[in-house]
Amino acid sequence: MEAPSPARLFAAAAGALLLVLGVVGFFYYASFGPLDQYEEALGAIQVNGWLNIFYIATGAVGLLVAGVASRTYSLTVGVLYTLLAIVGWGTGALNLVVGLLGLAAAAGTPRTKAKPQPKKSRSRKLKPRPKPAGKRA
Questions:
Q1: Does residue 70 fall inside a structural domain?
Q2: Average pLDDT, the chain
Q3: Residue 14 contacts residue 101 (beta carbons within 8 Å)
């Protein structure tokens, strides 16, 4: 049995973390007001209704694709969260950590190669049919 790839571990761990963060965020602040209006959750994480939905959505996708398209997920989330950290939407430190870890996981996971096709079975050589008696070629 193979060890899971870095991208698969990232998709599962980040997916679970983001999903829990989004759900917990609704207990602190669930307003869908302006995007730049936040409340502090757990002492350091900025949340609002939009961020909570965003965290839940990206976390759920991570959990769903952890075994199927984890490298693509890691790369996409890595780029997205790094850009969000640069723009300054949400908790910059959390977004930067998730983004950089996603990029590192995608870089540390090789692209999957096409599975080799199964070898074709050797076809039996057919013996030529005998020509009916009395007919000449």
A1: yes
A2: 86
A3: yes
Q: How confident is the model at residue 6 (pLDDT cuts 50, 70, 90)?
A: very high
Amino acid at 78: G
Long-range contacts of 128-135 (CB under 8 A, 24+ apart): none
Give me the count of residues in the chain: 137
Q: What pLDDT shows up at residue 127?
A: 72
123 pLDDT higher than 70: no
Instruction: Provide the number of structural domains found in the chain.
Output: 1
Residue 78 lies in domain: 6-107
Alpha helices in the chain (DSSP H): 6-28, 49-65, 70-87, 92-107
Instruction: Please give the structure tokens belonging to residue 114.
Output: 């096409």
Tokens of 58: 């990206």
124 Cβ neighbours under 8 A, 6+ residues apart: none
